[in-house]
Amino acid sequence: MRFTTIWSVLSLLAPLAVEASVLAIDYGADFMKASLMKPGVPFDVLLNKDSKRKIPSVVGWKKSDRVFGGDAFNLASRFPSDVFLDVKLLQAVPYDSDAVSFYTKISTADVTETARKTVALRQSDGKEWSAEELIAMQFAYIKDLAESFAQEKVRDVIVTVPPYYSQFERDAVVDAIEISGLKTLALINDGTAVAVNYAMTRNFNGPKPEYHIVYDAGASAIRATVVGFSNVKDKKEGAGTQISVAGVGWDRDVGGLELDRRLREILAKAFEEKHKKDVKKDKKGMMKLWKEANRIKAILSANTEAVSTVESLAYDIDFKSKVSRATFEKACEDLKPKFVQPIYDALNAAGLDLDNITSLIFTGGSTRTPMIQAAVKAAVGEDKLAYNVNADEAAVLGAALQGASLSRQFKTKNIKVNDVGVYDVQATYAAAATSPNAKPRSITTLIFPAGSKVGTKKTLTFKRKDDFTISLDYRNSVAPGFPTRLLEADIVGVAEAITNLTERGAIDPVVKATLTLSDSGFVSVSDAVVFGEIKDDSITGKLKGFFAGSSSTEETSTGSAENTPPRETPETSESASASTTTSSSSAAPEPTPVKKEKEEKKAPVENTIALTVDVRFTTIAPMTIAQKQESRKRLRAVDQEEAIKARREEARNTFESYLYRLRDLLDDENRETPFKKCSRETEREAIAVKLDDSFQWLFERGDLAETSQFLDKRIALETLEKPIVHRYKEIEAFPEALNNSQKWNWHTRMFLTEARQNLTAEIEADLPSKWTGDELDALETTLKEHESWLNEWVEKQRSVKSYEDPVIETTEMKARAKVLETQLYKLVKRKIPKAKKPKAKKAAEEDAKATETAEGAKPTASPPPPEQGEKTTEERKHDEL
Ligand SMILES: *[C@@H]1O[C@H](CO)[C@@H](O)[C@H](O)[C@H]1NC(C)=O
Ligand SMILES: *[C@@H]1O[C@H](CO)[C@@H](O)[C@H](O)[C@H]1NC(C)=O
Ligand SMILES: *[C@@H]1O[C@H](CO)[C@@H](O)[C@H](O)[C@H]1NC(C)=O
Ligand SMILES: *[C@@H]1O[C@H](CO)[C@@H](O)[C@H](O)[C@H]1NC(C)=O
């Protein structure tokens, strides 16, 4: 199944540009999966260094070494206070919320409160890391994997989030992305990502939607997403698949982690009953039991019984106990309705019945648990169950495809996605005072009811004369302990703008504020202006100036709005100003303004003035730029420390293996090795003494030494070794160097003999010559000098012992031979002077030969043999035709 999927998608993909790749991360509480979309690279799940497709979402420290994924998970029971699991559960949660009490039940980590009233975890050495920082480290780890796989920088990322994630939690995800050095392309709801993956390889009939439920049982929650798939025709882009989320249901209190927790309770109780000791008082024991519960749950998915054995679980006691599936299921009896309620909630939100549903698509690791499968089967009927997507990978692959289509770097299958917000969002503001002494009355309007399409803007119109504040709230708390207030936006500069327009003749100017629900599910006050009709004398102009109520809303349903959260990021300015909308990096078409505004824009009169929107976060604030920079600095410092450590390790290893290599050279007493042949006893002794020192230093001080000390010590030894190495390298290179020198002697002599004969003949025949006698004499002098130098020193070298330094260096031999060669070729390539009456053919031949040599074809022997020259001449003639 996987291979057909991948290949059929590949055939749909063609790179449009090559500059950037898109990373997708499906970040779950237990596991994370990643995928990289890069032109020319097969589309698949990214593997980690152990070739694992699923990477545990864990970061931890083994003393001062930071570890990730499976390595970290395996260390959890040894370092229960330094290995952090399930950090996803802590995203944006207030310190005193239920989410934190649940976390402390399943985790042994030390939970503390941040200055932002959210949660940090404390290492055993006291160092504290916010949830955002710990997740950013994991994102950075994925980024590194992707970069070493892609061999290029990776920046843009799309990350999956549960559809029920509030704005606070979505902000925490984006903060972690930014701290990690990545850039948010978009967030995508995980059920929607699975739907994209499902649609990748399927076609749907016509415009009437075919409904499926994506049922996702994850580690932290269960959610169901009702999705309609239809085939739509677009004039510009042709036929495509439309994915519309119709309804979402969820339960944040039930998931794989709660099952693990209950199974661990069973095991802990069994331990207590048997050994009369409380394992819960032992952090390491609880961590061991947590891993064990996870293992037993997997066994009980396939078997009705499992035997749990943990060596030295706690108090030095080896634990052994039998657990049956029945016991486990009995302990989860109360959860059973919760497994399926999200399905009913989703159908209800969509306004559909089970009859309208074609299939229920299972995803998420916990769908392997039999009691969950059974509950779902009982609820929807066996014939509707579909196991046709990869339960672990559908979300990340769908997210990657969606990321690719947003980045517009790729040509992908035409899939359009309509998602929805799942919470009621309302706006509150103080009504304009009717009289100076009236009590301020506050007005609340539902702006984006649950089920509103994302990528929507709404405009609120106010008759105001002064600055005022719009607050955005969730109608109900999204989870126990979470606040409802999202943000407060001060609309600033109203009075001046009204005066300005009024002075220019506007009648009853009003304030218009634009509220956005972005594609990634963020709400914001994205824009505010004062708008007024400039007075014209016609009756219609006067009539147009009237506005009925004190405020009214108009909805602008646009194809899409910005993907990135509408708040400060290092890239945009500090204040969420009115220009946020226009400067958004939206890949979607610009929103179409309502018709009226379009006409107004065409009108020559300036009748809108932009206002400043100052946004304040009074509850769980997203991190400020300064806070993110600070976190980024902390993470960079860790990276740098690790890099220094890695370099030091490498220097140490190189030094150590150098010492062993040298020791082997010295030890090889019985063989006549080149090293031995070329060294004196005294030299070897000197090296041996220094080598012993170095070994001793390495063992005594190696753990504390600096990178540079390893280098210095190595250089000190190399200085002793080098002359010896040089001797045998020279002995090896000598024969070839000698051969080379002799070759040029021989070529030069051959040339001189022939050249002198020709010169004599030419003088006799009164023909022009290429050389003069003097030139040939000069070459002969050089040749003789070279020959005698060579003879003399080669003779001297013969009596040099192998353990003595050579008296003649091969580099010098080569240099001297080169001098001779150069002088020889200056004459060889000489052209024949223009003859008084040259024989045409011969002249042409000589010419061609000269050209060839001049062009730098390096001859291997003295004057090229005549046949070769002629052949070349033929070729050239052909070329010229
Ligand atoms: C759902 O099914 C009911 C009855 O089975 C039908 O009347 C209704 O039209 C269907 N709704 C949709 C949206 O298909
Ligand atoms: C009105 O605003 C425009 C720009 O929006 C500015 O150029 C002009 O000076 C202002 N006029 C007054 C009277 O404030
Ligand atoms: C010298 O060079 C010639 C030709 O390049 C080769 O045949 C011969 O084996 C070489 N002799 C030595 C000692 O390298
Ligand atoms: C000497 O003359 C012959 C015949 O013309 C020619 O082939 C040869 O290349 C000449 N030798 C040199 C060294 O120029």
UniProtKB/TrEMBL annotation:
InterPro entries: ATPase_NBD, HSP70_C_sf, HSP70_peptide-bd_sf, Hsp_70_fam. Keywords: ATP-binding, Chaperone, Endoplasmic reticulum, Nucleotide-binding, Signal. GO terms for molecular function: ATP binding; ATP-dependent protein folding chaperone. It comes from the Eukaryota. Residues 547-603, 833-881 are annotated as: Disordered. GO terms for biological process: endoplasmic reticulum unfolded protein response. Residues 548-589 have a biased composition (Low complexity). CDD domains: ASKHA_NBD_HSP70_HYOU1. Residues 1-20 form the signal peptide. One of its GO terms (cellular component) is endoplasmic reticulum chaperone complex. Residues 593-603, 842-852, 868-881 have a biased composition (Basic and acidic residues). It holds the Pfam family HSP70. PANTHER family: HSC70CB, ISOFORM G-RELATED, HYPOXIA UP-REGULATED PROTEIN 1. This is Actin-like ATPase domain-containing protein.
